Description:
By secondary structure, the chain is an alpha+beta fold.
Amino acid sequence: xxxxxxxxxxxxxxxxxxxxxxxxxxxxxxxxxxxxxxxxxxxxxxxxxxxxxxxxxxxxxxxxxxxxxxxxxxxxxxxxxxxxxxxxxxxxxxxxxxxxxxxxxxxxxxxxxxxxxxxxxxxxxxxxxxxxxxxxxxxxxxxxxxxxxxxxxxxxxxxxxxxxxxxxxxxxxxxxxxxxxxxxxxxxxx
Length: 190
């Protein structure tokens, strides 16, 4: 069944709709704005994108195009329905069909923070992950000092699992902690 799901996605990338948002395939035009969001210091300190993927918008688009070919990472542009403006990205990364799990990630333009967009996009992607991809577990990480992102994960039904020590280049190569959250399919079905 999972192979058919992957074949279907490779033929036609899904478009997900929520009350205010449309989640769709990232285009080359999106990468100019996305590059600006990702390189913003307020955003960059809380993301795990490797710097070499962000050297310039065209390289960023090549990264996303390669992801669409391999389908290991499913990246969706977050677009406001009312204006068709792309405001960020929401992803299911490290999609492991055999283990039935993936890692949720998201980032938004700082101009769109604290408006519920991250929660709305993440909920849509979690539903898609369980219902369409037939995942059993979705995990997410956030910086230990990012309470806004932590609230997004909690509002999506995710539970704190543990702290994970990491070395952060963006924070002066010091050891810091990320918080691991997760939700299982049966927890959402309740």
